[in-house]
Phage protein (Acinetobacter baumannii), 137 residues
Amino acid sequence: MSKTVKIKPSHESQGEFVIISVDQFNPSEHELIEGESLPIDESEVTNDALVPVEQFDELANKLVISEEQLLTAKEELMAFKNDVPAMKARIAELQGDDTPVGATNENQNPSTENTGDAQASGPKAPAKNNKQSKDQE
C-alpha cells in the first residue's frame, strides 16, 4: 500500500483537503495542510548519516575538560590581578627588564618609583642605628 499525504486543494470544488500519494507530491505544485508531514522511509537514511554515541560521549568529555580549564584560567587571572608584585614582575619580564621588582636601574628615576625601598631606608634605618648605638654604650 502506498503512503499518502493530505495537501491543500487547488480548487474550491476539491473540499478542505486532497489526499495524494507521497510519490505524486511535488513541493513546487503542492502544499501540505497544517499538521501534515511527509513520511520518512527508514531505508532512505544511510549509515553515513548516523553518528556513533561514543563520538558524542567523547565530545562531551572534551567539553567538560575545556570548561574546567577555562575555570582554572579565570581563577588564576583573578589571583594574578590581585597580586600587584606579581604583575610588576610580569611587566618587567615582558619588557625584557631583568631588574628585580622594587629595585631601580639606570633607566628608572628612583624619585618616581613607589617600591617601598625608600621607606625602608628612611626614618626607620636611623632608629635602628640609634638602638644599636645605645646597645654599644
Remarks:
- The helical segments are 53-81, 84-94, 117-120, 124-136.
- Residues 111-135 have pLDDT under 50 and may be disordered.
- Residues 53-81 form the longest helix (29 residues).
